[in-house]
Amino acid sequence: MLIRGILLAATLLTGFAGPGAAQDKRKPNVVIFLADDEGYGELGCQGNREIPTPHIDSIAASGTRFTAGYVSGPYCGPTRAGLMTGRYQTRFGREFNEGPGTAKFGLPIAEKRIANRLRALGYATCAVVKWHLGNGPEFRLMKRCFDEVYGTLANTPYLKPNLADFHVSPDLQKVQDGNFYTTDAYADRAVDWIGKNKDKAFSLVQDIGEANDLTAEQAAKVKELMALWNARNAEQIAPLWGPAPKQPKKAAGDK
Hints:
The chain is an alpha/beta fold. Helix content is 28%, strand content 15%. Strand 5 (162-165) and strand 6 form a beta hairpin.
């Protein structure tokens, strides 16, 4: 899936420390957000007035924004390969988005990953992700230096996904709960894990794949946002184009 824009917030947190944070000698916590299909102009902090993103905007307002920073790959697998290794994908043959059916599809075992380096520094590590870097047992997250894993191995329906939950099994499990929604479940697991590890240095990779399915409530919200967009389009954008040209209609045989 094309990643039209990326929100990549590598936020260094002094975390849940109290007033004595200045004297706290603990390592900073590291939280990384990666969002598929996130358009550059779809956030409030980027000037969007139609889509409310107050929590993301608060990160931008209270942190440092890297407005000239770009991901090193234009879509799923390569982007994740670059993020996880800190290297250009072409250096180890992961510049293309090969399908999970490819025999050797996956992040090369020899590549050092962010979890390797952080675990060596004493960090607790967690990945709540759409992995997309290999379905084979040797490529899965549980063997890639993450203490806890929750998520999917590739694109999957968001209402009843094939889910990898380290608490349950190293194998994929088909979710049958009709009320399950992947994005909400990711958020709940991430918050739960942080709460359990708040007294130690931790690293969390929160990777949200594209929302292929919507609940009825979310679909209603999308309809509301589309109405706002259409109103703005009619008011501000459409007039810039002027009257539609008649030539193409005549060429097609219309009067």
